[in-house]
Amino acid sequence: MALLRSLTIIASIVAMSGGCRHDDEARAAELRDVRAKREKLLQSRLVTADSSSRPVPLARWIMPNELREISGLALLANGRVLAHDDEVGRIYEIDPKTGVIERRFALSGSPRGDFEGITVAGDDIYLLQSDDWLFKFQIAPDGDEAPYERFNTQLGKECEFEGVAYEPDSSQLVLPCKKVHKNKSLKHDIVIYKVMLPLSKPLRTTVMTIPVDDVLDANHWKEISPSDIAIDPVTRNYVLVAAREKALVIVSPDGQLLKAEALPTGHEQAEGVAVTPDGILIISDEATRTPAAITLYRWRR
Fold first, then answer.
1. DSSP codes of every residue in 186-229
2. What is the DSSP letter of 13?
3. Any bridge partners for residue 136, and if so which?
4. Over the stretch 279-290, which tens digit does the pLDDT of each residue have?
5. In what order do the strands lie in the sheet with 133-137?
6. Which of 26, 58, 227, 244 is the most exposed place for a label (fewest CB within 10 A)?
7. pLDDT digit string (tens) for 139-191?
8. Is the dihedral angle over the CA atoms 162, 193, 112, 103 positive or is it negative?
């Protein structure tokens, strides 16, 4: 199917530079043609999806090898998403509707670490490590480096974290706990930490817990281990994915469990999630038996 062609081809077109003017113009024209065809086909699939009762992928974009360990996703105001590598502070701006990588940049010095989540708060971007650290920076030009500030949240003793989202209504970062370290009695709850912006010393934090025992029994899950979180820009609900359980969970801002269900088939390692204002759910999977990919679905509010 034309819409499911490998993104590697498109990424290489974007990356090519330094050739003769005629070749550059030809590549630019080819890329415009690819974009236009994919956007048209996506729109036609959206119409079909609206009449379908089951979640069928609108598109599945295969990631290049440099993003084989794609992790969190964050939606930009221009409709594109930011994605990042798991081990190095490199950021990618992707057009989710065409699968084209529009920009690549790195944090200054390309710091290494277990990078697990990313979110956008106004002009600032926050990149999360799984233990204590948040990196704050702003978007940089293609191929450039972004200076950053680093903050020790000192929350690593409480939880292992793999996702972060910005909640504009409260000016807080929302961090779901993947694994509880300290309070083992909360193992079968969803635990969400909220950190007030601007970041300060000490951090201003609150904690919300959502009991999910009934959901665990119904779905034969031992627990729910969120691997990323997004905030629906229309409903403001929290949308979580859990790679281990292959789960999709929706929670209200006041802590009510609204839905918990299995992800559609084909998600072997769901590490990122985003929701667009116009009703598209985006899920990223790192490479396992299949290549890393970004998959789009119609989001039903």
1. GTTEEEEEEEESSP-SS--EEEEEEE-HHHHHHHT-S-----EE
2. H
3. 126, 149
4. 999 999 999 989
5. 115-121, 124-129, 133-137, 148-152
6. 26
7. 999 999 999 999 999 898 889 999 999 999 999 999 999 998 877 788 889 99
8. positive
